[in-house]
């Protein structure tokens, strides 16, 4: 046995070999190209610290960022019939659902939760674009109905974050029927006198835009979010004209009266809290608490008692 070959050389190689660098430590901003450290990016809610470009954020991360302390309780959503049309294209619809669930860890394209946001009790529904493009399915319809019913039962406002490419084609007319269903759910909130606020995120298109995403009492969007019904190319081919720059972007829609606000993701929680408390007739939100005064035992001393003077002899 050659000890130089078997021991010395491997030891030297291990000392001077290049250490493996974990993957996903850095993310390149698709807008400005800046390399962003993953912790810095997460702390800024996936918003580029250089150019303020808003990158994708998962539905669960969205809930954590909205609720106080990241604490919330999920609202149960009734399970619809699985693959009622027995749809198949290149893959079975059931297989696509399994893949999406494995990829995202979620049941479907919408999460519903309840909790407090800026000490204001709310119900929040969040659409997850990473789950089959956030497509509107029977499950999504059930989720919005469940969110509305829960909000009415608790007397709380409902906030909905939209992100979708439209109705889910694998469910055909059953997916499209969620448009009137969700519209009725929104009407139930209005009849109960409860605020319904929509935050449109990138992208929000198709049947989602034609239904619950544009029915809010207040319409807010994240910067540069794509919002529309049909695609820009289809519109250009239909009308035979060149569309203006920035068409279907949040800022363009704000200028033309389709939105009330365009708000950065990092400012959304404070803005939503202020708006909802105004609509609910509550006091102004509390931005922070003063620390409780420290009680130091040594600082509280009893006054020295006077000793009686001794009688003079």
TrEMBL record:
GO BP terms: fatty acid biosynthetic process; malonyl-CoA biosynthetic process
Cellular component, GO, one term: acetate CoA-transferase complex
Reaction it catalyzes: N(6)-carboxybiotinyl-L-lysyl-[protein] + acetyl-CoA = N(6)-biotinyl-L-lysyl-[protein] + malonyl-CoA
EC number annotated for this UniProt entry: 2.1.3.15
Lineage: Bacteria, Pseudomonadati, Pseudomonadota, Alphaproteobacteria, Rhodobacterales
Family: Belongs to the AccD/PCCB family.
Protein name (record): Acetyl-coenzyme A carboxylase carboxyl transferase subunit beta
Main location: cytoplasm
Gene that produces this protein: accD
Entry's cofactor comment: Binds 1 zinc ion per subunit.
């Amino acid at each position: 046995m050659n000890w130089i070959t078997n021991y010395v050389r491997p030891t030297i190689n291990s000392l001077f070999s290049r250490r493996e660098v974990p993957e996903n430590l850095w993310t390149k901003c698709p807008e400005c190209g800046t390399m962003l450290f993953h912790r810095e990016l997460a702390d800024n809610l996936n918003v580029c610290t250089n150019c303020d470009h808003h990158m994708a954020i998962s539905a669960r991360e969205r809930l954590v960022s909205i609720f106080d302390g990241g604490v919330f309780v999920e609202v149960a959503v009734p399970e619809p019939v699985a693959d009622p049309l027995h749809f198949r294209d290149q893959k079975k619809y059931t297989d696509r659902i399994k893949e999406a669930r494995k990829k995202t860890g979620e049941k479907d394209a919408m999460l519903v939760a309840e909790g407090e946001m800026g000490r204001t009790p709310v119900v929040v529904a969040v659409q997850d674009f990473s789950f089959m493009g956030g497509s509107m399915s029977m499950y999504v319809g059930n989720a919005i109905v469940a969110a509305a019913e829960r909000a009415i039962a608790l007397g709380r406002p409902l906030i909905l974050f939209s992100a979708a490419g439209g109705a889910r084609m694998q469910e055909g007319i059953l997916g499209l029927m969620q448009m009137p269903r969700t519209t009725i759910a929104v009407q139930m909130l209005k009849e109960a006198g409860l605020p319904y606020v929509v935050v449109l995120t990138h992208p929000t298109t198709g049947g989602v835009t034609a239904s619950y995403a544009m029915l809010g009492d207040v319409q807010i969007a994240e910067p540069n979010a794509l919002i529309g019904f049909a695609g820009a190319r289809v519109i250009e081919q239909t009308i035979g004209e060149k569309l203006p720059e920035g068409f279907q972007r949040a800022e363009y829609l704000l200028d033309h009266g389709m939105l009330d606000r365009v708000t950065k993701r990092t400012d959304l929680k404070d803005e939503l809290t202020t708006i909802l408390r105004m609509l609910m007739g509550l006091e102004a939100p509390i931005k922070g608490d003063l620390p409780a005064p420290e009680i130091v035992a040594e600082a509280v001393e009893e006054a020295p008692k006077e000793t009686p003077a001794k009688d003079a002899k």
